[in-house]
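Need a sequence for this fold. Nothing fancy.
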């Protein structure tokens, strides 16, 4: 998943520091002074909680002064004195925001969470002050209306159009009471989305299952047992501790033979922030209503209509048609797969209907028997250090990039490593921060973000600082960090986002890197997943961490044979999330949402292939759409899968390490950011529009 921080309604998205004042407040605050580290890397070793609020206050003050300079001049508005000046007006605020909010996701504490709730309305107010500034908008409008006769470059015209669009989509044309209402809604939403995420993190951290009877560990591989023992030791408890964090929860559900404990874990995981002390139901209803009301103020019937205007899909109708057509092609295979797993479980003595807490276990047993492959067999060949080196080598083979760890650059946690990234000519490309392991101060999942985007300022290029944050299996006393195959694929996915950020080329930060429409941003990440099942790539690095032996060809063949295992089921599962998202955000009235669980149940009914369980609810912990920027956009994972399946077919045709294809992908996709419409960029790479059939063919679902 990709995470970007849009601090000023996607107009000022700059992650650097501009020296504008010599005030004592600025000099004494490490967040506001120019970093003395190499490349200007953030001075994480100097940042303390007491610095953040003061830094936000000062940065907002400086940004307001810069805006005042733009609006107060009597000089005719031009691209330079208006659009460019606005692009860089909030540099310090963007720098402080990118550092603080990224750390609030990856290494937070209760003090930071309180600060986040306090400063978010301040940032929203500042954003509204810009977007609702009539004098400023009039100047932007003048440049926009004269853009085609002002001798501007293609990139400058694009920035002018995107800036104007940002104003129009964020209330600039509202008047009087509507303008005041927009301000109020924006402020409320900034608080509620933060509260939603904080509740999910708290609910995740609160649950633990402490087992002291070793017979309850039946079926669990040694790596799972060792991890649970290490978790118990960290908590000063006896026995084994299991949590709702991915490296603990996932393997437990796959391998534990104890159905009662699987049900306990499943219910806890799927009822986070539902009918508990961290309940998000009312927050969801408020967020949905506020988003709907904001969309109406801006002239849209629904929030989905508002969001999708900018995306490749363009309308809710197109998204729903896309979902329905893909569901039609995958629901029968999914039901057949569930029937196969059920029949298999019955032959092993299971009686009755498979429940959701049974499916992971029995499908793993079936896969192990049918393909003779499981994570316990694969993990020894996927030592984290080896995987990391292999992915870096892949980037070198494709794009000529090298990665060298720099231990002198400060980090925000001892787990974090920093790499200097250079191209084949030796040019500095980016810093890459990697943060692999779970902790209570980090939210779940995996994501890429930036501490600084790529851009030019006053003739000097600022290269990006990219961060990869994951929650992988931690090393134990008995073994290093050994990745499951899913974790290996996840790292490839997030590294694809990182490439998109690192290889950015452009002048203006709001147009570079991953600052693209939501249903295009997943293309670079999802295409990288394909290498996970390519024999030639696996042979290049996968060695047993104890014996050093190469992964056997037989095992690679099994990986390839099993890659489409449950392809229908996994597609339908993703479509379920997309359907739920669109149901929440394509509402024109909220009276139907009084019961969050029942609303979700009705929204996803057509995609259900396992029994619905009362007293659980996915929506209350669905951070992607209620706190993570994917509202009315979760479909984009499947949309981008169509793009990547079609795009990767060119690599398959020419060679998976083909430098000519890789260079074209870099030149037309990875480096271009938002310099052109996504559909144009894709056609420039592929020579045509994508073939939707490519996704069905990839999963072998055309055979059903």
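Here you go.
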């Amino acid at each position: 998943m990709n995470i970007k921080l849009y601090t000023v309604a996607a107009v000022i998205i700059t992650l650097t520091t501009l020296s504008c004042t010599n005030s004592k407040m600025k000099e004494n605050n490490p967040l506001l002074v120019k970093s003395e580290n190499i490349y200007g890397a953030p001075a994480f070793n100097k940042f303390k909680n007491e610095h953040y609020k003061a830094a936000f206050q000062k940065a907002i003050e400086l940004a307001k002064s810069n805006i005042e300079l733009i609006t107060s001049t009597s000089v005719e508005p031009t691209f330079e004195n208006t659009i460019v000046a606005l692009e860089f007006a909030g540099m310090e605020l963007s720098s402080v925001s990118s550092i603080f909010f990224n750390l609030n996701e990856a290494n937070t504490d209760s003090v930071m969470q309180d600060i986040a709730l306090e400063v978010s309305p301040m940032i929203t107010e500042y954003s509204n002050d810009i977007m609702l500034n009539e004098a400023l908008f009039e100047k932007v409008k003048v440049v926009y209306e004269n853009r085609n006769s002002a001798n501007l470059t293609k990139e400058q015209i694009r920035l002018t159009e995107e800036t104007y669009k940002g104003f129009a989509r964020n209330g600039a044309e509202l008047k009087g009471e509507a303008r005041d209402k927009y301000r109020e809604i924006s402020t409320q939403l900034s608080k509620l989305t933060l509260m939603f995420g904080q509740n999910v993190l708290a609910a995740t951290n609160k649950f633990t299952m402490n087992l002291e009877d070793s017979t309850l560990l039946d079926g669990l591989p040694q790596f799972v047992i060792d991890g649970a023992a290490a978790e118990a030791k960290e908590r000063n408890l006896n026995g084994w501790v299991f949590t709702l964090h991915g490296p603990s929860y996932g393997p437990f559900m796959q391998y534990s033979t104890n159905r009662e404990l699987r049900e306990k874990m499943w219910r806890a995981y799927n009822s986070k922030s539902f009918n508990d002390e961290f309940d998000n139901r009312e927050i969801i209803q408020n967020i949905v209503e506020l988003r709907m009301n904001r969309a109406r103020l801006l002239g849209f019937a629904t929030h989905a209509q508002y969001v999708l205007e900018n995306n490749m899909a363009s309308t809710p109708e197109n998204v729903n048609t896309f979902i329905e057509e893909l569901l039609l092609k995958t629901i029968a295979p999914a039901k057949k797969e569930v029937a196969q797993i059920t029949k298999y479980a019955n032959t092993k003595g299971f009686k009755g209907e498979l429940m959701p807490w049974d499916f992971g276990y029995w499908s793993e047993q079936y896969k192990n028997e049918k393909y003779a492959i499981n994570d316990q067999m694969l993990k020894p060949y996927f030592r984290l250090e080896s995987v990391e080196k292999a992915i870096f080598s892949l980037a070198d083979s494709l794009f000529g990039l090298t990665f060298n760890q720099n231990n002198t650059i400060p980090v925000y946690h001892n787990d974090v490593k920093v790499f200097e990234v250079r191209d084949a000519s030796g040019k500095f490309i980016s810093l890459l921060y990697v943060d692999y392991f779970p902790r209570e101060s980090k939210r779940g999942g995996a994501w890429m973000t930036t501490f600084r985007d790529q851009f030019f300022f006053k003739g000097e290029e600022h290269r990006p600082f990219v961060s990869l944050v994951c929650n992988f299996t931690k090393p134990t006393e008995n073994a290093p960090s050994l990745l499951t195959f899913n974790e290996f694929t996840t790292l490839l996915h997030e590294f694809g986002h990182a490439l998109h950020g690192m290889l950015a080329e452009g002048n203006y930060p709001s147009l570079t890197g991953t600052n693209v429409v939501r249903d295009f941003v997943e293309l670079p990440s999802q295409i990288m997943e394909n290498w996970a099942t390519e024999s030639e790539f696996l042979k290049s690095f996968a060695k047993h961490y104890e014996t050093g032996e190469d992964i056997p060809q037989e095992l690679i063949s099994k990986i390839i044979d099993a890659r489409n295992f449950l392809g229908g089921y996994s597609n339908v599962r993703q479509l379920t999330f997309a359907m739920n998202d669109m149901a929440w955000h394509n509402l024109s009235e909220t009276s139907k949402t009084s019961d969050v669980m029942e609303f979700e149940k009705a929204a996803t009914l057509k995609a259900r292939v396992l029994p619905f369980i009362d007293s659980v609810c996915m929506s209350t912990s669905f951070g992607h759409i209620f706190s993570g920027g994917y509202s009315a956009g979760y479909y984009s994972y499947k949309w981008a899968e169509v793009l990547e399946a079609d795009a990767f077919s060119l690599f398959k045709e020419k060679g998976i390490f083909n430098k000519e294809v890789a260079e074209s992908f870099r030149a037309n996709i990875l480096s271009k950011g938002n310099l052109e419409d996504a559909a144009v960029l894709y056609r420039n790479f592929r020579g045509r529009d994508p073939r939707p059939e490519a996704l069905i063919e990839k999963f072998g679902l055309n055979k059903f």
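For context: The chain has a mean pLDDT of 93.
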